[in-house]
């Protein structure tokens, strides 16, 4: 464990909660930051706060409501149906979200003396979001260092993992049951197994099924 401080960009979902456990295993001090950007379900904020409290993590909630005004999407408007079309970005994509989240997380990190910023973005099982790509993270990392003259390190422990491997990581961290039962991934705001119908739930469940199958094969 490094005697350093880390900030986790935290939504209370499967990926960011796995990252939170990952950070706790590596750094002596961990804080979490959650963004209120007028997301479709306020339960996401409550879920994140509950998990942070449960794990004894200092939790910051920052007001990013301007993003809701600038970038309407199915995640920021309950009157827009969630849709996916081949060859197009899903309408759940929020322009600039990760750019802004990581930038504000960096400002917070500098104020609290944290050098490591951890985010659960992933280029393996993703919906084509451009702000989840490794090249974007590396570019922003350089920009943040230059903009504040501070040695930030953006860490992406899930970048090259598929969902089954993310479940495996949570299991290695001793957090499998917790992540499975306490996190909110569902676009329709249902904790744990979710609605089972939205794209986020289908991806989560497919990864879980794949991991459980592999785990059962190893036991046999």
If you had to describe this structure to a student in words, what would you say it looks like?
The chain has 220 residues and is of the alpha/beta class. The chain is 45% helix and 14% strand. A five-stranded parallel sheet has the order 3-2-1-4-5, with helices on both faces. Helix 2 links the parallel strand 2 and strand 3. Helix 1 runs parallel beside helix 6 and helix 6 packs across helix 8. The longest helix has 21 residues. The termini are far apart. The mean pLDDT is 90.
What is the topological layout?
Elements: E1 2-9, H1 14-26, E2 27-36, H2 43-54, E3 58-63, H3 65-70, H4 97-112, E4 116-118, H5 134-148, E5 153-155, H6 163-172, H7 176-182, H8 199-219
Parallel strand pairs: 1-2, 1-4, 2-3, 4-5
Helix pairs in contact: 1-6, 6-8
What's the short story on this structure?
The chain is 45% helix and 14% strand. It has 220 residues and is an alpha/beta fold. The protein has a 5-stranded parallel β-sheet, sandwiched between helices.
Output the structural class: alpha/beta
Strand order of the largest sheet: 3-2-1-4-5
What's the helical proportion of residues? 40-55%
As a percent range, the share of strand residues is 5-15%
Order of helices and strands: EHEHEHHEHEHHH
Radius of gyration: 17 Å
Q: Characterize the biggest β-sheet.
A: 5 strands, parallel
Low-confidence stretches: none
First-last Cα distance = 34 Å
Counting DSSP H or I runs of 4 or more residues, the number of helices is 8
- Average residue pLDDT: 90
**Total beta strands:** 5
Q: What global shape is seen?
A: globular
């Amino acid at each position: 464990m490094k005697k350093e401080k880390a900030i986790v960009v935290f939504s209370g979902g499967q990926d960011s909660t796995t990252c939170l456990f990952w950070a706790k295993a590596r750094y002596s001090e961990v804080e979490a930051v959650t963004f209120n950007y007028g997301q479709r379900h306020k339960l996401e904020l409550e879920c994140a706060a509950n998990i942070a409290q449960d794990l004894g993590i200092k939790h910051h909630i920052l007001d990013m409501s301007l993003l809701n005004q600038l970038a309407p999407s199915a995640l920021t408007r309950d009157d827009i149906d969630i849709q996916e079309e081949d060859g197009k970005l899903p309408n759940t994509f929020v322009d600039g979200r990760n750019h802004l989240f990581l930038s504000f997380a960096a400002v917070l990190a500098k104020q609290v003396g944290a050098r490591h910023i951890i985010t659960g973005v992933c280029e393996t099982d993703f919906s084509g979001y451009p702000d989840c790509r490794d090249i974007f993270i590396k570019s922003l990392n350089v920009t943040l260092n230059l903009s504040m003259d501070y040695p930030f390190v953006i860490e992406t422990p899930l970048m090259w993992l598929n969902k089954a491997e993310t479940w495996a990581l949570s299991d290695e961290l001793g957090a499998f049951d917790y992540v499975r039962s306490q996190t909110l991934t569902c676009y329709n705001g249902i904790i744990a197994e979710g609605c089972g119908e939205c794209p986020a739930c289908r991806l989560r469940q497919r990864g879980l099924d794949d991991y459980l199958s592999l785990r059962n094969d190893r036991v046999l």
